[in-house]
Amino acid sequence: MKLNFNKILYMKSIELDAIDLQLLDSLQHDASLSNVALAEKANVSPPTCLRRVKRLIDEGWIERQVAVLSADKLGVALGHGLTALVEVSLDKQGSEHLDAFEAHAVTLDAVQQCWRVSPGPDFMLVVQARDMPHYLTISQSLFTQDANVRNVKAFFATKRAKFGTQMTLPTR
């Protein structure tokens, strides 16, 4: 199947072309690039680049720009803490119950990621805690009977082999 890179993706009748994809790819690898450097990478003028990036942000293609911190350096400076990958199965799985658990989970700063999954458990969470007592406090808040939780299986990370945020985009 040959892709037409002039009209690749649609979202609410908004198109992404090859330049947009190049800008998105460059930004997801290094959002600190200056507008001039980014324009150079995409082979467009700086004003065009600025206008396109603003449009990509305004239309929601770019959710936010953040700094990815070094877990190893922070671990040495602040204490390594615990990273838990947690499977959660709810007792009742109606949409109102799934929505209620999700709404509660995403309010906690310690919950770095919350995924609804299928099949198997209803949710997968990535939880970052200072230590085991902190994890216990988090788990009591998230997994008590009034939270409609039937089963929890937590896996504690011993080593992070890879961490990334980039999404694979089509190229020319």
Topology of this protein?
Elements: E1 9-11, E2 14-16, H1 18-29, H2 35-42, H3 46-58, H4 71-78, E3 82-90, H5 95-105, E4 111-116, E5 123-129, H6 132-143, E6 149-156
Antiparallel strand pairs: 1-2, 3-5, 3-6, 4-5
Overview of this protein structure:
- This protein has 172 residues and is of the alpha+beta class.
- It has two domains: 9-58, Orthogonal Bundle (Arc Repressor Mutant, subunit A), CATH 1.10.10.10; 71-156, Alpha-Beta Plaits.
- Helix content is 37%, strand content 21%.
- The strands form two sheets. A four-stranded antiparallel beta sheet has the order 4-5-3-6, covered by helices on one side.
- The two termini are 14 Å apart.
Strand order of the largest sheet: 4-5-3-6
Shape designation: globular
Fraction of residues in helix = 25-40%
Q: Radius of gyration in whole Å, from Cα?
A: 21 Å
The CATH topology of the largest domain is given as Alpha-Beta Plaits
